[in-house]
Design a protein that fits this description.
The structure is a homodimer of 140-residue chains. Chain A has a two-stranded antiparallel sheet. By secondary structure, chain A is mostly helical. The N and C termini of chain A lie far apart (38 Å). Chain A has a single domain, classed as Arc Repressor Mutant, subunit A (Orthogonal Bundle), CATH 1.10.10. The first copy, chain A, is globular, with a radius of gyration of 16 Å. Chain A has helices spanning 13-21, 26-34, 40-46, 52-64, 86-89, 92-104, 106-115, 136-139, and strands spanning 8-9, 68-73, 79-84, 122-123. The interface between A and B is large, with 65 and 65 residues. Chain A binds a DNA duplex (30 and 30 nucleotides) through residues 2, 4-6, 22-24, 39-41, 50-54, 56-57, 60, 72, 75-80, 118. Chains A, B: It holds the Pfam family HxlR.
Amino acid sequence: MYERKTPLTIDCGLHLTKEVLNGKWKPAILRAISMDVKRPSEILRLFPGATRRVLNVQLKELEGHGMIEKKTYPQLPPKVEYSLTEIGWSLMPIIEAMNQWGDANRSFLEKVIKNAPKISETSKSACQIYRHMTVAQKIG
Amino acid sequence: MYERKTPLTIDCGLHLTKEVLNGKWKPAILRAISMDVKRPSEILRLFPGATRRVLNVQLKELEGHGMIEKKTYPQLPPKVEYSLTEIGWSLMPIIEAMNQWGDANRSFLEKVIKNAPKISETSKSACQIYRHMTVAQKIG
DNA sequence: TGTCATAGGGATAATTTTATCCCATATAGG
DNA sequence: CCTATATGGGATAAAATTATCCCTATGACA
């Protein structure tokens, strides 16, 4: 861990929300948990592109921000399950909207993103969340 | 500019959306433009916490991603106005939702964010967008 | 005795993003 | 001549995030 050196901007709600969702896999993690993929090892398998280390760190931050809760079962090998808190659930409409917007505009977005000068390669093999059911009902 | 070395994850819509919104001021910039704060100098004044350089860079990326359009008036001193494209407008419900979620949960979020170990200081003086009207009607 | 599964985290390197500083254009006004 | 306005961007430093590698623990199983 390090200590932030530039003051964190929390002026408008946008920046607060951004801080919570700020992390390469955080929205995806929240979405996974909302779809009952709740054990760390399951989440890890869901995102082959992510490192175990990073997922651990981001899970811990989400927990620290009160978006998820952790339940540890006193077993061996250990068993841990995460679940969304109430405020965590309240984020789901936003995350689902982001997901839908991205999918709805996929062809356009892939084009413009690949045209961006700094991009040399993209990866599509990472997320396997499509195998799981949608959560639309739950957040309806 | 640099060249990205790790492949960009674009597996699910979430990651595509994240890529577009990925930038300290991008959601705020889009929101500003949606509220008719469209000239670079105006946007800059709106976010005292942001550098001119960063806003330029992020505006350019948003333009490159097709979220905003730039109109340059052949004048001196130069005059430039940005506006949202159609797809840029289609992002506004998400951005407004993020803003509202952050504001609705402000007291809780400020608490947990400040408790996070890596935070030492926060800044609240940056965004002055509250002086402007809401855009609710426009995206209704 | 090896090896696997499951979870957690330290130390450090690499990458990516932001910040800082400086220069350029061209006109108007004191 | 200096200053201000308005916009854009290069070069480099600093900060923040992610990646890589390694070590911990313990029971089950071949």
